[in-house]
Amino acid sequence: MSTASHGEYYIPEPSKWPIVGTAALTTSVIGAVNTIHAGEMSLLLPVGLLLIAYLFFGWFGSVIDESMAGKYSAQVDKSFRLGMMWFIFSEVMFFAAFFGALFYARVLSVPWLGGAGNNAATHEFLWPAFEAVWPLLTNPDNTKIAAPGEAMGAMGLPAINTAILLTSSVTLTWAHHALRAGNRLHLNLGLGITVLLGCLFLVFQVEEYIHAYSELGLTMSSGIYGSTFFLLTGFHGFHVTMGTTMLLVILIRCLKGHFTADKHFGFEGVAWYWHFVDVVWLGLYIFVYWL
Amino acid sequence: MNAVVEEHHDHDHKPTGIGRWLFSTNHKDIGSMYLWFAFTMFFIGGALALLIRAELFQPGMQIVEPEFFNQLTTLHGLIMVFGVIMPAFVGLANWQLPMMIGAPDMALPRMNNWSFWLLPGAFGLLLASLVMSLMGLGSAPNFGWTFYAPLSTTYGPDSTDYFIFSVHLMGISSVMGAINVIATIMNLRAPGMTYMKMPIFVWTWFITAYLLIAVMPVLAGVVTMMLTDRNFGTSFFDAAGGGDPVMFQHVFWFFGHPEVYIMILPAFGIISSIVPTFSRKPLFGYSSMVYATASIAFLSFIVWAHHMFTTGMPVAGELFFMYSTMLIAIPTGVKVFNWISTMWRGALTFETPMLFAIAFIFLFTMGGFTGLMLCIAPADFQYHDTYFVVAHFHYVLVTGAAFSIMAAVYFWLPKWTGNMYDEKLGKLHFWLTCISANVLFFPMHFIGLAGMPRRIPDYALQFAEFNQIASVGAFVFGFSQLIFLYVVIKCVRGGEKATDKVWEGAHGLEFDLPSPAPFHSYTTPPVVK
Predict the structure, then answer these.
(1) Is residue B519 situated within a structural domain?
(2) What is the mean pLDDT of residues A73-78?
(3) Which positions in chain B touch A39 (Cβ < 8 Å)?
(4) Do B121 and A25 touch (CB under 8 A)?
(5) Does B525 map to a domain?
(6) To the nearest whole angstrom, how far is the Cα of B241 from the nearest Cα of chain A?
(7) Per the CB < 8 Å rule, is A11 touching B520?
(8) Closest to B179 (Cβ–Cβ): which among A17, A83, A222?
(9) pLDDT for B12
(10) Most exposed of A115, B19, B21, B435 (fewest Cβ within 10 Å)?
(11) Which residue of B has its CA nearest to A116?
(12) pLDDT average, residue stretch B496-519
């Protein structure tokens, strides 16, 4: 029996985690800026990141404990679902900003720099030699911002990574069905394979980045093509890292025997997140690599 | 286990000491912290505004350096938008939503507290840059609250990077707050309270929360692009690499326009709660109010480039954004006429909240009309970046949003504290505020139309008189707020006991609770018929 449970809705005890979270984030961001400005690691950054790790372990740990102690009613479960759902929507909008930047550059600003529409004068007076071709292999001002040597193709690693992520969504769904059918072996197997596929994706992405930087000359600072390429794929990669970590946590919980056939929001929340990451990748594959 | 038993006897058991605030999971305590935070920021942002008005009291350079003047306008705007109006509305939501829908608390109480505590972190970062600037150690952000590239990228001071992360923290705070509001409203309504029976303040916050979730991440995106443009060589906003400084404005205003509705929709909800109470009539056109709010929210996503008419958009773009902006007048008009119809033949009394509400209706409508003038693209070529724009958005944000917050505080303070506020002082505060706000902002229309540019510390001689009038208004307005502070403190400390219903014409679940409301609002859900 919880001390602060009033009526049927579970209201948690006063908790230190929000304050820890504030300290963690504030320390991390100050550390990040100091690191950027000084050009060498500021002590605050690792301290902040460790605090964030402590926060995740502590906060999620206490939520898992409360959940295992049966303190959460169906109504609380629904609050968590709503929270996760709208959190994912906010993530969608974060990616939308970068997709918006990509489309704006491809459809408007780059053609305008090339003289499209009524921008003949822009083209003539700024960079008359510039030709608007996507992906940009010559920047408007190549002396200031060196253009990439070559664009990233859609075949090869990116195509393999697409297959990997799509497969991982299938294996995750398999695990989910197994959980609902009470088949723990298939659950653990499916989840384990999903985690491995997530790691494999990341390995290939690192490979691809090395290829881009060392062989193609495609970097973050090689113009709008490199900027959109690396920020979109980079933030996606970061989300895959988060997702894989979350899947790993869920896998450990499954191995410990957590979750039942009808109560497993933790599993479902992570699964939603993973499918979201998958869908974002499809958008990336089509608009960044392919078209 | 003894503690358990004891607590069940005493539902009003409160944690004590500083831990009550640091570790809170209580919507009322968190709401109070939000409101006090906003109040504090209101005085800091206001002090910056008074410095601006002191400098502009007469032509020529008097008090501050132009470089510092830029920092003043920037921080004044950022503090008032992100540190005052938004947190104050979240504070009101925290206090009122659970009581209004018959819930024990917000749906996710720990996340609620995190949402709040991120704000002192974020504003600590931002204000630290101002303190450093005052000590002569570099410049605070100086590019205007809209932080346009390349002012904020190529030319931004070092503190810009702290500013960027400060915005990230505010964004995380807002998104978590909004998720909490949505989960609370969707999941914790009392049995029988269907969506179309929700109090209108709950509705307006519900829709505002969606706006927040949709656009705060876009703001996070645009500051991230700034960060990488500044430090990692990307060229999002640099035409030399194929980017475009104007793209900054598009992404920023895709956030920025819904943002201005984030700062006014809850105000509509407040006014829609107060006007019926003091007219002793139900709200006229409840469902049309709901649909109008939703329409405004939808339209807010397709009007952003009306802030950018002078950037050289294609004509088709100018026309689209002009007409879509004009459409907003329709749902807004529905609201204004509904409020007037609510008052029509009502048994009106004019307590302080009602005075603020009526002032809101009149003055916000004026701000709306100047908005219509500004949305006419060819006319905007003249008005753009003049004091006319400053007049416009101060009418909607000060005599609009800020007045609604003051109205709300007077309206619900007796419910929160159990004491009536000092009505005489409240009225004095209202009249001083209302008159001085107009003395302050009304002349700005004229000097703006006559061509005085905004954000410039000096001006041509012919603008002197109106600027002096505005500055006098500013100081009266600023110091009148000390009366407000005094009234609030006095009311928190004691005074004539408020009844449970507080106001004769009050309706709603929050007025069924005792005054002051118990620590956990509705421990068992009431049934709504």
Answers:
(1) no
(2) 93
(3) none
(4) yes
(5) no
(6) 4
(7) yes
(8) A83
(9) 54
(10) B19
(11) B314
(12) 94
**Structural domain boundaries enclosing B431:** 18-230+241-511
Q: Is B10 a domain residue?
A: no
**Which of A272, A254, A263, A266 is closest to A173 using CA atoms?**
A272
Q: How far apart are CA B481 and CA B39, in angstroms?
A: 10
Q: Are the C-beta atoms of residues A230 and A216 closer than 8 Å to each other?
A: no
Mean pLDDT value of segment B310-339: 96
**Cis bond before residue B516 (omega within 30° of 0):** yes
Give me B139's structure tokens.
Answer: 């410049």
Number of structural domains found in chain B: 1
DSSP B519: S
Cα angle A283-A285-A290, degrees, rounded to a multiple of 5: 120
What does the pLDDT look like over B433-462, one tens digit per residue? 999 999 999 999 999 999 999 999 999 999
pLDDT higher than threshold 80 for residue A124:
yes
Helices A157-181/A265-284 angle, 10° precision: 160
Q: Is the pLDDT of residue B2 over 90?
A: no
Cβ proximity of B450 and B62 under 8 Å: no
Go through the domains of chain A in sequence order and give each one's CATH number. Answer: 1-72 (1.10.287.70), 73-290 (1.20.120.80)
Which chain A residues have a beta carbon less than 8 Å from that of B21? none
Q: Tokens 């009536």 map to which residue?
A: B420
In the predicted model, is pLDDT for residue B228 greater than 80? yes
What residues pair up with A9 in beta bridges, in sequence order?
A6
The answer for residues whose C-beta is within 8 angstroms of residue A132's C-beta and 6 or more apart is: A110, A111, A113, A114, A115, A116
Quick: pLDDT tens for B249-308.
999 999 999 999 999 999 999 999 999 999 999 999 999 999 999 999 999 999 999 999
What whole-number distance in Å separates Cα of residue B380 and Cα of residue A58? 54
Q: Which domain CATH number covers B399?
A: 1.20.210.10
SS3 A163: helix
Residues paired with residue B386 on neighbouring β-strands, in sequence order = B453
pLDDT the model gives residue B13:
63
Catalytic positions of B, please?
76, 105, 145, 173-174, 257, 259, 261, 272, 306-307, 332, 335, 454
The number of residues making up chain A comes to: 291
Contact B14, B98 (CB under 8 A): no
In a domain, B1, yes or no: no
Q: What percent of chain B has pLDDT over 90?
A: 94
Express the helix, strand and coil content of chain B in percent, nearest 5 each. 70, 0, 25
